[in-house]
Amino acid sequence: MKKFVHVVGAIIENDAQQILCAQRSKTMTLPNLWEFPGGKIEKGETAEQALTREIAEELQCQIIVGQKVEDTTYEYETFIVRLETYKASIVQGVPVATEHAELRWLARHELQQIEWAAADIPAVRKLQR
Ligand SMILES: Nc1nc2c([nH]c(=O)n2[C@H]2C[C@H](O)[C@@H](COP(=O)(O)OP(=O)(O)OP(=O)(O)O)O2)c(=O)[nH]1
């Protein structure tokens, strides 16, 4: 049976209405694909707690979590992911790529310029409507 992971991703928008996109490194699963920063929900955590923790670890900044945007389950070749995405705003710090290959701020109409992880496509489409 395929491994199942429950993941939260942050859709962080800045004052210029750009969204923070994060490129997975070449050594991670789904290498070089772009995603919303975040990660797996650990036992006993709410989605909001997991997202706040992951962003502090990965980007070294503090966020407040807002509205849910999308909830998608996608079956990759080797695992199944349930990705919940939430709007979020940075309340302290400037994002630093401690794990990602690159961070990029893109306007909504520019989001299709990069190659997203498949599970992210419904959320990306919603942002472009
Ligand atoms: N953080 C994040 N992960 C995503 C997104 N879309 C998507 O398919 N994923 C996948 C990639 C990972 O396999 C998993 C998230 O786990 P993680 O953030 O702990 O990633 P990881 O590389 O440290 O873990 P792993 O896959 O090596 O076990 O969900 C997304 O938008 N954000």
TrEMBL record:
Cofactor: Mg(2+)
GO molecular function: 8-oxo-7,8-dihydrodeoxyguanosine triphosphate pyrophosphatase activity; 8-oxo-7,8-dihydroguanosine triphosphate pyrophosphatase activity; 8-oxo-dGDP phosphatase activity; 8-oxo-GDP phosphatase activity; metal ion binding
Enzyme class: hydrolase
Membrane spanning residue stretches: none
Keyword Zinc: no
EC number: 3.6.1.55
Stored CDD domains: NUDIX_MutT_NudA_like
PROSITE patterns: NUDIX
InterPro entries in the cross-refs: MutT-like, Nudix_hydrolase, NUDIX_hydrolase-like_dom_sf, NUDIX_hydrolase_dom
Pfam families assigned to the protein according to its UniProt record, in alphabetical order: NUDIX
GO biological process: DNA repair; DNA replication
UniProt keyword list: DNA damage, DNA repair, DNA replication, Hydrolase, Magnesium, Metal-binding, Mutator protein
Catalytic activity: 8-oxo-dGTP + H2O = 8-oxo-dGMP + diphosphate + H(+)
Species of origin: Caryophanon tenue
Protein name from the UniProt record: 8-oxo-dGTP diphosphatase
Nudix hydrolase domain residues: 3-128
The keyword RNA-binding belongs to this UniProt entry's keyword annotation: no
Family listed: Belongs to the Nudix hydrolase family.
